[in-house]
Amino acid sequence: MPQPSALVEDWQLVELQTPRKLLTTGLSIWTPTNLSPAAVACLALKTTLQLENTTIIDVSYLPTGSKVDAHGPCAESADVHTALCRVQFFTNTTDTSSMRAEAWLPDEWYGRFLVTGNGGLGGCIDYGSLDYGTSLHFATVGSNNGHDGTNGDVFLNHPEVINDFAARAIHVEAVIGKQITEAYYGRAHNRAYYSGCSTGGRQGTQAALKYPTDFDGIVAGAPATDFNHLVHWSAMLGRAIGAPDPASSPGFIPPQLWKVIAEEIMRQCDGIDGVLDGIIMEPDTCNFDPEALADGRRLDSCLLPPQIAALHKIYSPLYGKRGDVIYPRFDPGAEGDSGCDLFSGRIVSRAEDWIKYTIVNNTDFDFSEYGLEHLELMDSINPGGIATFDGDLSTFRDHGGKFLTYHGRADPEIIASGNSKRVYDLIVQTLDSFTTNVDAFYRSFLIPGMGHCARGPGAPRFGQFWPGSNAMNESSHNILVALVD
Ligand SMILES: *[C@@H]1O[C@H](CO)[C@@H](O)[C@H](O)[C@H]1NC(C)=O
Ligand SMILES: *[C@@H]1O[C@H](CO)[C@@H](O)[C@H](O)[C@H]1NC(C)=O
Ligand SMILES: *[C@@H]1O[C@H](CO)[C@@H](O)[C@H](O)[C@H]1NC(C)=O
Ligand SMILES: *[C@@H]1O[C@H](CO)[C@@H](O)[C@H](O)[C@H]1NC(C)=O
Ligand SMILES: [Ca+2]
């Protein structure tokens, strides 16, 4: 005999597996011959939707195989793999801030609602993720996170735009998106999900902390958590090995030497995991010794002492005055053949813009002045509460929320994977592992050989976002479907 709870689950399974088909009867008397009932219901939203602080920009019905193009600073496009109703809207988040967003509502709907995230300092609706979510039959929403484009200059003296970026936009699009979903299908969603990577991973983490009842399930990839410290680490790496002018920065390592460094790291550490495959399974076991590149053991290269010193800095955690870890080290094995952005000879624009436009508020800020006192300023201002470094997920947990996070261990672009270990430890400490089984609602996957959100020689495809043509949609292969389970 099945237990009652098993019966309920079986029933839910049947319910979830039976897609709701839109209006197969009833409205056909008004239908012009070339419009399907779903298209008619969709276009009707243009006049019927009444939503707080919101203007409907456009409503259109997109048959399978349509293409969506974006204009302006976010020149993205996407193929539409499943027929859907597209609602473009504009919401005032306050008197001095607003958000552009879209709800994509598939014809075949299983009752699931999904919000997708952004990247970098963006600013751009992620059409690929909207297509991906709808191809898995989620009613899917994405926004510009409160501003257009990928630059930070929009933040200057616009604290409400910062607030949208730091936390509020995802909340508002969840609130409005759920209302649009209900208006279209004639019933409310039964579960709400979130999925994003990088800044999107931070947004998902922030949602669980600040708006813990917005989502039942969250996938947060390579999260840019402890954001201010991440910015400081990026700026310090840019400065430590920054200007490619040897007089001002003798530690600068030109791109062609990174191939040599990457090879030496693999020579020293690839075999620790027992397999020579170009992947360091656990970068924290790799105590890379840069001196090997200084003493002439290799004929094709020889690094100068300031360059060796720079490597020591890169592959050590960044410490504060009291010996506290400000940010973990760059993962050995994540370099790639030509070195990453962080080492390109200038401070990466994400960090530069954040410091200039939200912290010092000076467009001409001179980065030769940058130092630890700016981190202290960043910590004290913490614009919009951006930090996202807090282990108290108790409300999210008590609401029944489930959280899956992943981080590639060869993330060359932006975010050291050691930071996800710090966040996990913080959550365990905060929730007290003796009373909370953290793994029952929060699981962290560190993925060997995977780059930033995707790519790399490891196993970088598990349904985290648009997977191209060969989507794997079973939960054993797909993190979003696994979250639903
Ligand atoms: C949004 O704000 C603008 C500018 O303040 C205003 O003109 C507009 O009416 C507002 N829209 C809604 C729907 O509240
Ligand atoms: C609408 O705007 C007002 C004023 O900015 C705000 O208090 C309210 O929460 C907004 N509603 C939604 C759904 O965002
Ligand atoms: C997965 O794909 C199969 C075959 O196309 C389809 O029948 C099924 O509904 C899909 N499942 C989900 C969750 O989208
Ligand atoms: C810079 O402006 C932001 C608001 O846009 C403010 O929060 C911050 O305190 C300002 N920085 C300084 C140093 O005053
Ligand atoms: Ca290996």
Spatial order of the strands in the main sheet?
A: 1-4-5-7-6-8-9-12-13
What is the name of the CATH superfamily of the largest domain? Alpha/Beta hydrolase fold, catalytic domain
Ligands present: 2-acetamido-2-deoxy-beta-D-glucopyranose, calcium ion
CATH fold category name of the largest domain: Rossmann fold
Largest sheet: 9 strands, mixed
Integer average pLDDT: 89
What is the domain tally? 2
- By secondary-structure content and strand pairing, the structural class works out as alpha/beta
State the end-to-end CA separation: 23 Å
* Helix and strand run: HHEEEEEEHEHEHEHHHEEHHHEHEH
- Give the low-pLDDT segments: 1-19, 23-31
What would CATH call the architecture of the largest domain?
Answer: 3-Layer(aba) Sandwich
Tally of separate helices: 13
Organism: Mycena metata
GO molecular function: feruloyl esterase activity; metal ion binding
EC number: 3.1.1.-
Family: Belongs to the tannase family.
What structural keywords apply?
alpha/beta, Rossmann fold, nine-stranded mixed sheet, 13 strands, globular, disordered N terminus, binds 2-acetamido-2-deoxy-beta-D-glucopyranose, metal ion binding
Describe this structure in words.
This protein has 485 residues and is an alpha/beta fold. It folds into two domains: 6-227 and 388-484, Alpha/Beta hydrolase fold, catalytic domain (Rossmann fold, 3-Layer(aba) Sandwich); 229-384, no CATH class. The protein has 13 helices and 13 strands. It has helices at residues 4-17, 37-48, 127-135, 159-185, 199-210, 227-240, 255-269, 305-314, 349-359, 372-381, 394-398, 418-431, 479-484, and strands spanning 54-62, 67-69, 77-79, 84-94, 97-106, 112-116, 139-143, 191-197, 217-221, 318-319, 325-327, 402-408, 442-447. It has a nine-stranded mixed β-sheet with strand order 1-4-5-7-6-8-9-12-13, with helices on both faces. The chain has a two-stranded antiparallel ribbon with strand order 2-3. Helix 4 crosses helix 5 and helix 6 (227-240) crosses helix 9. It is globular and about 75 Å long. It starts with a helix and ends with a helix. The model is unreliable at 1-19 and 23-31 (pLDDT under 50). The chain binds 2-acetamido-2-deoxy-beta-D-glucopyranose (4 copies) and calcium ion. Residues 157, 159, 162, 358-361, 381, 383 line the site of one 2-acetamido-2-deoxy-beta-D-glucopyranose.
